[in-house]
Protein 1
Amino acid sequence: MSKKVLIVTYYWPPAGGPGVQRWLKFVKYLPEFDINPIVFTPESASYPIVDESLNKELPEDLEVIKYPIKEPYKVAQIFSKQSAKTISKGIIRENNRQSLIEKLMLYVRGNFFIPDARIGWVKPSVNFLSGYLAENDIHTVITTGPPHSLHLIGFKLKQQLGLKWIADFRDPWTTIGYHKQLKLSKSSQKKHKDLEKQVLNIADNIIVTSNVTKKEFLKITNKPITVITNGYDDETLKKYSLDKKFTLSHIGSFLSKRNPKILWQALSELINEFTSFKDNFQLNLVGYVSDSIFESIKKYNLSNYINNIGYVSHEQSIEFQKKSQLLLLVEINSEETRCIIPGKLFEYMVSKRPIIAIGPKDSDIESIIKDTNTGFYFNYNDLQTLKNIILECYNQYKNENLKTYPVGIQKYHRKTLTNSLSQLL
């Protein structure tokens, strides 16, 4: 008889964006390892991004329990619809660009909704699940965050029922990039730290997506921590014709703090120095792009080379990845972001298009790209090296031999990763 497991997740189809992919794929493959997943998720959630195409990926026999949620962002929209929507996406503008209403919303979000704006869903969910789990003979619960308030559901169910609880961290908690921008008081900072410590020390097992996060959490808890990264699935194997232009494509949100000015400078210099490069280059921006990114691009006289696509479905994003000559991945240049491994990295890798990645020194992204031979990694001061590599890639493009030769990427297939998860269960 299959083992039943309840998965508590906020992001679920029709939610779009990277947050939904991880558990959508785990749920797809868990039955092959004799595990029956049951999903618990909000009803009528206020998702900042919607992708209806993901509904097609849901297994037909999957049991999904939807429970009502009251979303504070819906109330916030009364005061400023645009600001509420932007903040709910995790997009926080620089302090000098924030309006008074944005600053107020961030203060309220950071100090009155701890750990996050979905805290109000915890108590009613626990009340409902306490009965449901007992009635359906389910003894294992997995919570996935962010939002990290969902871990408090697992925490309280563990206390009440003594079941097995696994906490999955897709991103860190108190060291995540935007945490410092929430205008937290000292008492609020302490509450976050205390909750994080409680979760890490009460959960039976902890899953993280990077080795850097594992090292961080090992300073807080002695509980077993397993690294299970994000990955790729078979839909990325479809073939597309490459772009005629020398395209460099960034897929996903391009936030202001990820502004790679050395890249804009390198591209600007190559355009000025090589007429052929100028005639063939195109920068594809697929997803949300902050105003400061556009301003920097304009400053370096690159505006005429932009193909600004905007948000597309996951299926369409795969097409852009497969058709592009080069793929761009940028992470914030900070100590805290060394652990961040965007889910798109693995889809980039299997697209077999070279990756140009820019980020902090000694990051997990750097290790993965080098180990799999899927592209090039640069720090924020590697201007000349970056410029040389792009020119080298361009010459290969002109000779029609720009490609990668990946090694060892099979371990990042979603089914392989689900096997690792099944061993914990």
Note: The longest strand covers residues 35-43.
Protein 2
Amino acid sequence: MSFWNLRFGVEFTDREGNRRWPPILVVTVPTAGYRMRIDTMQLASIFNLIIVTAGALAAAFWFSDRGITLFDITLLLTTQFLVGLGITLGYHRLFCHKAFSAGRGVSIVLGALAAASMQGKIMTWVSVHRKHHHHSDEVGDPHSPKSAGEGFVAALLAFLDGHVGWTVSGRLCNYTDYVRDLRRDEAIAFADRYYWLWVLMGWLIPGLISAAWYGSWPGFVSGVLGAGAMRVFLQLQATWAVNSLGHLWGSRPFVTKDDSRNNPLVNAMTLVGEGLHNNHHAFQWSAKFSLHKGEIDPGFWVLRVLARTGLVWDVKIPGPDLIEARGDAAGHSGAGAG
């Protein structure tokens, strides 16, 4: 249609031909030969990044003036761990890879916890991650940190793009073809419908807990800014580090078609075992990321408790023979620490 000599249209595919949601609004001015593509998801991602960064700066200023206590740190880490469980057990191992089964209630709780990380709705997160696995470190990977050029500057730009740049580049959207199997899942639909409520609760609940502890409004602000704003910022860095550092530095005990690596720093940042990235790429369907002695996977520890109580079931884990066979292949191919 035309309005004031403008023509409006929509594109339901990205530049690579992948079907996506929401569509891109296209505005053209025929007389001037001007064409503009408006990606609402990209604009929302930029706004989200601004809000998160502003919140983290406000938290840094607040605590630099007020000081930080052991309670503040404990509340932040506890909240980050609980939300991290939502990400690793809900978004990642359950919804994306179906590494175990869970009922509606557990699925909603995990989805709500993960939403508090402000990393997007389930359908979007899962579609991006599945696309990542399908094109890992190749053309089409939404967040590969591979450099397209030579030298330090090119490598740095590639790292930044794989870490955070991709989120505001237009590559963050719901790639609908990758989540067809989830469209009729009532638990996912419910969790996604109230996404912003879970985000809000992820800020307010720590504030209320802190207010009760300190017995003051400044205590409420400390909870909102510390275990709310700063926690979201740190959690985003941890998740993004899996995409960037987890494909650049670390060990490769298994042969995979990509550059995935086990990175102890990333594992410490996530708190829930997500740094065992090469293990995960070798056995994407596995609910357990720790496949060798000494590897730390708190997410699976919690999952094992849930399984023993009957809240989850059909937990998929590779057997020792399969793990050893893949490990032998890695050794024979010369794969090792990177």
Note: The mean pLDDT is 93.
Protein 3
Amino acid sequence: MEQLLHYCWKHKMWPATGLETTDGRRIEVIDPGLHNRNAGPDFFNAKVRIGGTLWVGNVELHDRASHWYQHGHDSDAAYDNVILHVVGEADRDVQTSKGDFVPQVCLTVPPAVSDNYEELLRTDSYPPCYRVIPNLPRLTVHAWMAALQTERLEQKTTAIEQRVRQCGGSWEDAYFMTLARNYGFGINGDAFEEWARHIPLSAVGKHRDNLFQIEAVFLGQAGLLAMEAVPERYQQQALTEGYFARLRNEYQYLAHKFSLQPMDYKRWRFLRLRPQNFPHIRLAQLANVYYERKAGLSQLIACKDMASLSELLRTQVTPYWQTHYTFGSESVRNAKHLSPGSISLLIINTCVPMLFAYGRHTMRDALCDRAFDILEQLKAEHNHIIRLWQECGLEVKTAGDSQALIQLKREYCDRKDCLRCRFGYEYLKHPQMPTPPTNPH
């Protein structure tokens, strides 16, 4: 498999007796080069001594030498500076577009590496490399976790920068959109982000001192003030109570004033959703946050510690929603504050990435450092991903740890991308792994 050839070349996994070209010249690999994931040769700027002569250039790898011609490299000038062709099987000589012959070497993947890799791909239990976890050096674990944590923040930074572009360069609006998305707590994240794009903050800001009007716009733009958005069995009760009708009338006035168009209410998901996560409640909470002027980027940046961040995100709902989860369906009175766990998730998924992204944008290292400090102060998240890693022997204490492991699962384990994972590397280089138990957990 060509991927394993790449892996072995990159990590210098070759026979103890050394390497020789197919015509018998001794090879000394000084530097395997920089792995190229784009078009062109597989490794750039390699340094290889062949038969006593030092060559500096590129390296190309194939399962079979004849793939050089199948891929058209013999007529592509981009491959004229290849100094070595690494193959699993040298079934023919190869030439560049200039007619020069390229030195070739057969690289055999060590059986232990091949067997371990096949097992990683076959294993359905997660994570597939669980057996090496307890024996990994602490430095290896710490370094990989730190890299994953940064990788996850950079990934979220890319998403935030995309929102900034969608908002015409406004970081304030992008922050509101990011906050809104995370009020969906996964299930309705996409719907909340779409909703935020339907909120003209410059227009709503003219009515910022009126919580009722803010709530009318927020619920109206969500499409939830349309009669068809209310389940038929609750429609009469919703009209009788009066609050629904008042909100709808107010929204119709504001929609006409600002030329507003609501989103499709069918975008909201309710199946298997706990009532406290219903979009009506989350939107009512967001309306309160906006009304109290706690939904701005400047307010976030002003928070210097966890206590001030928690206070910034603490919210409540208007009296109607204390006794309702949807229109027309009365419930036991509940203040419906955000739970401490929900606030922690908002800090992890909204405040931390925003501080990091804005710190990068403004070149304010203090904001980036604050983002990492917050992750180290918060306790680790509790979900099935974290529990599985803990059962494998990993110590997970902080939100930084849990964010790193979520990144590891989604970007490496789920994609079977073990060759780019440092835990996978430790697994592959192990000479012989014991037979796995029937149920590792």
Note: Residues 138-166 form the longest helix (29 residues).
Protein 4
Amino acid sequence: MVRGMESSDNFSTCLVLNTVSAARILLRRYDQRLKIHGVTVQQFALLSAIRFHPSSPVASFAQKVALDRTSLTRSLDLLERKGLVRRLSGSGNARLCALSEIGDRLLDTLRGEWQAAQSELLSRVSAEEAATYLQVARALSEE
């Protein structure tokens, strides 16, 4: 339930407000694990997308990591300044991204941190609850 809202409020059962509240708490928890490595959860997601979709144009990453194009550009600029990614020319006007050697090694470390955070979180719910949560989240986020 959204903190600070009485159960008699219509807001206490609002899917959006409860989702936003849960997302903030979960992001904070994951960010705390990743910040010692100088990245956020969103940057981790972007680094992962680059690794697993190496020949995809930069524009396609916005959808893969749920970022608008401006935020994607800002995140890529930051990751490039940190030496974690490099932008490459593709066919035509397409721009591609690749992980640098440093970025590739860091992503391996980050995946371990993510796995630990994921295990910690999953230990708080049953396998059925986790599966139901993912099913509902995916159904509600379809466009």
Note: The longest strand covers residues 85-89.
